[in-house]
């Protein structure tokens, strides 16, 4: 069984190290000098563990961290039903896995029971975010009785939102005449693949595949970018409307939405080895990495079509998701050019996110790791703040990159 981040460690590393040792015009074997060496990554992870101990002390009982607003100097929290609730225990578990800081593990164990009831929540499409990033990591790192059952029930709840008419999983519950599907939903399919393998029930897998195929058919533009929201006719399955919710305009490329798509279709290829999913991931990567409005430091503006560029807010969360996805996509890339391109792009992002411009100083930022993320700019919500999912994918990307640097192919 594969859980978040685990496949990278089993499969990605040999190919990455060969690439790093044989890059350059002459393709001669050289010693690769990483822009973030292992010692630096370990230092960042140790400091991150200390930050999360601070966050744990500030967190009110029964609440999950949502964001830190530096302008107000305020920690904003949520209940377990908020779509980001799984990221805090997931980040704690990632940091514990590397640092062995038992205080983080105890905090994760304190939070998981608060989240457990969401396995029965059929009112959200976000159960992959909520349950697989949390209980999936817990099952992988330190299995306990009941974790598998919680994940299977979570998959069952998610599957109730599938419509055979629209051939997709409903996202938000809204007006009766709307069946809304957002690109973010690609991130919840990994839970269904896991459940199918664990139970032997192909229904979960078939739903995930059908949803992905429908997304390819309808969500994407010729340049590889994605609409944020599609509205389907739930009686005919026809697309009624293509629009945005969190982007600048219906026709714009909302940065985090593009990152969700990149990550989601990379996972689809991992789970299926279907060429169309790899092709889709590559098209998204090409759009992102080749975009003329992608800043030189690798941190995208909140929307690639934002009118205020170059003064528009950047989105560290979109960058962290991109970095983690690219580090996995590299393994599946066809030829060394794309492989090298993906590694270099991920490195650039991680170097920037690990700089003083984005990574918070010790004891600041309410205990969060990264600054300068954007949640929902059109609604003036969570703009230029620290956000829990930015931390999660940043730590995941650091762990994936560190594993690449420390892999020894001759060791058993």
Defining key terms:
412 residues; alpha+beta; three-stranded antiparallel β-sheet; 13 helices
Question: What can you see in these coordinates?
Answer:
The chain is of the alpha+beta class and 412 residues long. Helices cover 50% and strands 9% of the residues. The strands form 3 sheets. The chain has a 4-stranded antiparallel beta sheet. A 3-stranded antiparallel beta sheet has the order 5-6-7, with no helix packed on it. A hairpin with a 4-residue loop joins strand 8 and strand 9 (381-387). Helix 3 (87-99) packs parallel to helix 5 and helix 3 packs parallel to helix 13 (388-406). The two termini are 20 Å apart.
Give the total of beta strands: 9
Radius of gyration: 20 Å
- Mean pLDDT, rounded to whole units? 92
Q: What topology, given as strand order, has the largest sheet?
A: 2-1-9-8
Sum this structure up briefly.
This protein has 412 residues and is α+β, with helices and mostly antiparallel strands. The chain is built from 13 helices and nine strands.
Write the layout of secondary structure elements.
Elements: H1 6-21, H2 38-58, E1 64-69, E2 74-78, H3 87-99, H4 102-115, H5 127-141, H6 147-159, E3 162-163, E4 168-169, E5 179-182, H7 189-199, H8 202-218, E6 229-232, E7 239-243, H9 255-272, H10 275-289, H11 316-332, H12 336-353, E8 373-376, E9 381-387, H13 388-406
Antiparallel strand pairs: 1-2, 1-9, 3-4, 5-6, 6-7, 8-9
Helix pairs in contact: 1-11, 1-13, 2-3, 2-13, 3-4, 3-5, 3-13, 5-6, 5-7, 6-7, 7-8, 9-10, 9-11, 11-12, 11-13, 12-13
